[in-house]
């Protein structure tokens, strides 16, 4: 996948100014280019929401498996899911990148292009960043969001018994995609599994779902980044409730079953402990929140923070940095 | 300098949750701990200002020369100088860190403590971050600022002929400190040069100078991060003016002269191309801006973007990432 890039100059050859100019060409912004970025004023009562995520080569992505554009996409999704999980709307992104001097320019412009493509869907802007030499490729993205109105943000500690648990997006796809990549490599994954691989390399994220959920009765939200059970456990523990998942609502679909068959693994592992789907998970008093489906209920705190059909989950281990 | 830290566990031993808990202990914040940080609402008409900087071990800092606390300090100063350079007030910081699993916990808590100590001076808060394993230590800091009022921010393109050029902070000290560290190592730098070494390892930055300058007639501002001539050239080029420096106002002081004598180098190199002082540099119609001194004038655009006593500078090369 890297051959096409060998013709472009290296970062050392083109120099810092040249690299920055190339980034600004693929991700134009009127705000970018001063010491810091000044964002436009929101309506009165608007709060600013910020989050940051760091992606390290060969840990969070592999250039054999993902194009630079996909790495940019994924970095945006990771951060924008966190912004949405507060009930806020993403408005801006900063991109800090460390890369060896021998890195091809097209890798950097590809990441920037991927970021630009993805943030366009959210009407957000790449407003600034930093570029530095280093031994490895490390991408650090900061997202800025805007939280309007006087309602509280969607926090981890506001799930209440009686609410329904809702999800927007697939669950387990990213982890299945990763296992398929490990087994087959990007170029040889059977075509029937492309959607799973794509969920890993460039996960989907619908705009405005956090805002809509907050407007229709959601109180707690997070995204499935570390694993369904891990992330729901955080909500359950912080809110002192138990989350009871409906097994029928989360059971592996035909794609996951088929992939599990080919790989000889348990598809529930992907569903329960997979992570990196960045599916939005909320608790709400509202019904039929657009884009979401019900996957469970919030009940009074019992022995386990999260149960599936009343039983403790079979897989609980999630993604860990260390 | 690292012996005292050998007793603390490694990041792998304590695990991600333990590391995060330890960070939150040294840098407590009520805002930190959700998917994203929701900042408090500013007065109406307040704009949000954001900037990011990435520090790579052995490129931006060396653990032989700097304590973890000093690395935290410097990371804050780099970012807060950029916020101030817009005329804004820093209010929050995010800290993303990549470090090998064998890294000692005390390194991470030391950096966090340094960040916390420094942002306290600005009444700012460490509101979130990310932690991930990686081959090298990479620290990525994002600062958020608040820009009040309806006046425009202090941008690079608003210097005007007739203004005076003013500076807040020392010029050339950081580069001299770096050369002294290269020559002697941290533990053997002669005591008379401690102020220069400290300017490199934990550069000073006065709070509120950007706000004060904006309130008293400044229109353009930057900080001396890449080198005096490089950074003023950016203002001069973007504003289509020439900046005429007064040599008497920037000439090397007794400390720089003495260090240059010991190292057998030209102290003007530190002053003109040193960088990393994070001294605030502004152009203003105001007089006696508190904390600043006049170092030159803005005149109509001539042949050179920056002159010293009417002549082209002898040293122009600044810090480059590539």
Outline the structure in words.
The structure is a homodimer. Chain A is α+β, with helices and mostly antiparallel strands. Helix content of chain A is about 35%, strand content about 25%. In chain A, strands 7-9-6-10-8-11 form a six-stranded mixed sheet. In chain A, strands 2-5-3-4 form a four-stranded mixed sheet, covered by helices on one side. In chain A, helix 1 (about 10-25) runs parallel beside helix 3 and helix 4 (about 175-185) runs parallel beside helix 9 (about 255-265). The model of chain A has no long low-confidence stretch (mean pLDDT about 95). Chains A and B meet through helix 1, strand 1, strand 2, helix 2 and strand 3 of A and helix 1, strand 1, strand 2, helix 2 and strand 3 of B. Chains A, B: Pathway: Cofactor biosynthesis; thiamine diphosphate biosynthesis; thiamine diphosphate from thiamine phosphate: step 1/1.
Write out key terms for the chains shown:
10 helices; 4-stranded mixed beta sheet; homodimer; alpha+beta; 6-stranded mixed beta sheet; PurM-like_N (chains A, B); 322 residues; metal-binding (chains A, B)
């Amino acid at each position: 996948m890297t051959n096409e890039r060998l013709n472009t100059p290296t970062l050392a050859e083109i120099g810092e100014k040249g690299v920055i100019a190339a980034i600004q060409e693929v991700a134009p912004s009127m705000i970018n280019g001063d010491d810091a970025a000044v964002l436009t004023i929101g309506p009165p009562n608007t709060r600013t929401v910020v989050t940051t995520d760091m992606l390290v080569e060969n840990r969070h992505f592999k250039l054999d498996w993902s194009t630079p554009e996909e790495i940019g996409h994924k970095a945006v999704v990771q951060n924008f899911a966190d912004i949405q999980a507060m009930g806020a709307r993403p408005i801006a992104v900063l991109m800090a990148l460390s890369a060896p001097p021998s890195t091809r320019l097209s890798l950097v412009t590809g990441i920037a292009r991927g970021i630009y493509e993805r943030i366009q869907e959210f009407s957000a802007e790449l407003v600034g960043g930093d570029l530095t030499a280093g031994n490895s490729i490390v991408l650090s993205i900061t997202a800025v969001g805007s939280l309007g109105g006087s309602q509280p943000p969607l926090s981890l500690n506001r799930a209440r018994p009686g609410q329904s648990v809702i999800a927007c997006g697939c669950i387990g796809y990213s982890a299945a995609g990763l296992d398929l990549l490990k087994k087959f490599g990007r170029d040889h994954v059977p075509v029937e599994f492309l959607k799973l691989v794509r969920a890993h390399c460039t996960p989907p994220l619908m705009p405005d779902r956090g805002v809509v959920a907050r407007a229709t009765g959601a109180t707690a939200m997070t995204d499935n980044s570390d694993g369904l059970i891990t992330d729901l456990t955080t909500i359950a523990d912080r809110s002192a409730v138990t989350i009871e998942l409906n097994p029928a609502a989360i059971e592996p679909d035909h794609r996951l079953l088929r992939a599990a068959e080919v790989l000889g693994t348990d598809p529930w592992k992907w569903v329960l402990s997979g992570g990196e789907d960045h599916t939005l998970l909320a608790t709400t008093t509202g019904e039929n929140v657009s884009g979401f489906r019900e996957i469970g209920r919030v009940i009074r705190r019992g022995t386990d923070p999260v149960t599936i059909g009343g039983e403790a989950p079979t897989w609980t281990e999630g993604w860990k940095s260390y």
